Amino acid sequence: MSFKAVLRGCGAFLPEKVLTNDDLSKRVDTSDEWIRERTGIRERHVASEGELTSDLAAHAARAALKDAGLTADDIDLIIVATTTPDLTFPSTAAIVQAKIGAGAGAAFDIQAVCTGFVYALSTAEKFLCAGQHKRALVIGAETFSRILDWEDRGTCVLFGDGAGAFVLEAQEESEAGDRGVMASFLRCDGRLVDLLYVDGGVSATQSTGYVRMQGNKVFREAVTRISQAMVAVCEEANVPVTDIDWFVPHQANERIIQGVVKKLDLRNDQVISTIAGQGNTSAASIPLAYCAGVADGRIKKGDLVLFEAMGGGLTWGAALMRV
Ligand code: COA
Asked: What does the H/E/C string look like for 147-176?
């Protein structure tokens, strides 16, 4: 039997607390104007004390299950893409499994920083298409605010917290029709670790550390690598890039998104952008943006959607899906 991984539902969650650019300008030497011009960000949500990555993930997961018309009992695979797990172990996926009351399927985390959701989506697709699992929750969830150096204006203005989730289902080709994940492309070049990393961790320092980034160097790598991944998935699926209905990018910087739109001859009305109100929520940004596009009626069943991301590692990738 041949299976496809079809999207059944999606869900999003943002913590209530909001931090505006003006709030940040009281902490570090920056301004609303500088942040908006260089990044497109106006404000971001941040988790409150005691609000954990698994809490955000569980909220998004429940919303996705509701949207799919399913319950936690229907899920036999949970993959959480996160760089900010609750604990060193067990995985945040294991904690989410318990919080939502899912049965004893498989559950694990994926760490590919901002590319995490694309890695998780591609991994889930392979598990479902192999016929070993029937329904997966694929979640991107982050409390990046916990690993920010709030005195470093080059990084603390960029990131936010949040979570988004997809429910993917293995369907036989006859049932799925042309819906499902069509192609994915994952890459990493570990020689570029120094461009974007956290200066702490279990083995190195026995501490959590803070985000360190050479922002302009990351910026220079972004448009080329992201475009390469987008072209690769479209070629594999034999679809011209410009034929997609929606471009749902990782929300790192509005100027990076615009650079990709220009390079690949896309139109601005094909782009789902949430960066102004959310900032860069790392692995959560793609499902959060996708959910925003569904919620306001732009993305509809049967549309062709292209996802992309780049992050620490450097990692980068893309996925093409008929939803
Ligand atoms: N407010 C005011 N000034 C700031 C600032 C801030 N928040 N952050 C940096 N600056 C200053 C720098 O200190 C520097 O000052 P100097 O010239 O006196 O040394 C100046 O702005 C230019 O710094 P630079 O880093 O070259 O700016 P930039 O135009 O590249 O913009 C980023 C900085 C971070 C917005 C941009 O590089 C970027 O978005 N990079 C990609 C980051 C990213 O997406 N990372 C996540 C990938 S998943």
From this structure: HCCCCCHHHHCCECEEEEEEEEEEEEHHHH
